[in-house]
Amino acid sequence: MVRPMQERAVQTRKLILRAAAESFDESGYHGAQITGILGRAGLTQGAMYFHFKSKEDLARTVMLEQAADLRLPERPAGLKQLVEITLTLAVEMQRNVLFRAGVRLAVDLEGPAVRDSSIYRWWTDRFNDELVEAHRKGELLPHVNGAELAEMLVGAYTGIQLMSQITSGRKDLPRRITSIWRYLLPGIATPEALAGITLADGAEARP
Amino acid sequence: MVRPMQERAVQTRKLILRAAAESFDESGYHGAQITGILGRAGLTQGAMYFHFKSKEDLARTVMLEQAADLRLPERPAGLKQLVEITLTLAVEMQRNVLFRAGVRLAVDLEGPAVRDSSIYRWWTDRFNDELVEAHRKGELLPHVNGAELAEMLVGAYTGIQLMSQITSGRKDLPRRITSIWRYLLPGIATPEALAGITLADGAEARP
């Protein structure tokens, strides 16, 4: 009898996280209310407190598990895959509420990121995995330090999606992510690696 | 008798804006309170309402006038000056409360930027002025679109300062801004322009 109970608990936890993500996405950390989250999930306070002890705990979990519903490639494959991941994330930002809410909480200076910046580290490591592989395959110019570049990319991505949200409701996000690569690739990739990467809008990395 | 009154009004407005900037910098849009701002400024509500009609109005003004105390070069001079401006901003972010509060409000999704994104446009135009001059002087590679690059830089800068604030209280901001240029310059600048720009940490744009 243990197994079905555990599965039910897992489902309830997911239900709460989804409702919390919807609330944080719409209203931000301050604006979201526990009562609103419970109403969305159709659950009582008791059911929630079994899993999460406070709004801060819920927000922290949404932020840290923002990538749980993303299907990222399991094996690092290098520079081209890193470009593809960033473009996929631009699309996911428009349709995946857990990811979107997690990112919103990560840039909210009144939210949980102020006490826990590990999601920035997580993405930096994920991006760097691709750059380590890119180095191994000889795709990067010799002056590139993968860890430094990964950290720069995560910061740049964070701000570009924020600016896109504020100025266009994220409609232009894929175009803006393409812009990063258009200007960055020629300074980090070997000519051979560059030739293998085509950016959208009919524009190559180096025209 | 008109002139002294006007000057007093200008001084009062400055006093209120400074107090508001300190409050928004410390507590964010939601956390800052009108009463706290008045207490800092040593003024009554009446004195404030003569200049600003609400907290939103105050926040919008701090955000839009964030650059009022910065001494930016008056004439565009090209790529090297753009690099210097971004490094100067990294230092100003640490000591200029009006700038810091204005930037914080510009990334606050519960703040005034949600209804007025013009400060992003203002910085994009300012950065682009340098790139237009850089193009005129032949410092940029032919594929560079100044307006697109300026927009990308403003977005990237926004996120990199936010990530730096969250992970190190902005201590590492100058290093992170140097990183952008280390990887971006070789893909946008001519070899001659590149040779004229030295980045900190003893590291050249292209080692």
From TrEMBL, chains A, B:
<feature type="domain" description="HTH tetR-type">
    <location>
        <begin position="10"/>
        <end position="70"/>
    </location>
</feature>
<dbReference type="InterPro" id="IPR001647">
    <property type="entry name" value="HTH_TetR"/>
</dbReference>
<dbReference type="InterPro" id="IPR036271">
    <property type="entry name" value="Tet_transcr_reg_TetR-rel_C_sf"/>
</dbReference>
<dbReference type="InterPro" id="IPR054126">
    <property type="entry name" value="CprB_TetR_C"/>
</dbReference>
<dbReference type="InterPro" id="IPR009057">
    <property type="entry name" value="Homeodomain-like_sf"/>
</dbReference>
<dbReference type="InterPro" id="IPR050109">
    <property type="entry name" value="HTH-type_TetR-like_transc_reg"/>
</dbReference>
<dbReference type="Pfam" id="PF21935">
    <property type="entry name" value="TetR_C_45"/>
</dbReference>
<dbReference type="Pfam" id="PF00440">
    <property type="entry name" value="TetR_N"/>
</dbReference>
<keyword id="KW-0805">Transcription regulation</keyword>
<keyword id="KW-0238">DNA-binding</keyword>
<protein>
    <submittedName>
        <fullName>ScbR family autoregulator-binding transcription factor</fullName>
    </submittedName>
</protein>
<keyword id="KW-0804">Transcription</keyword>
<dbReference type="InterPro" id="IPR047923">
    <property type="entry name" value="ArpA-like"/>
</dbReference>
<feature type="DNA-binding region" description="H-T-H motif">
    <location>
        <begin position="33"/>
        <end position="52"/>
    </location>
</feature>
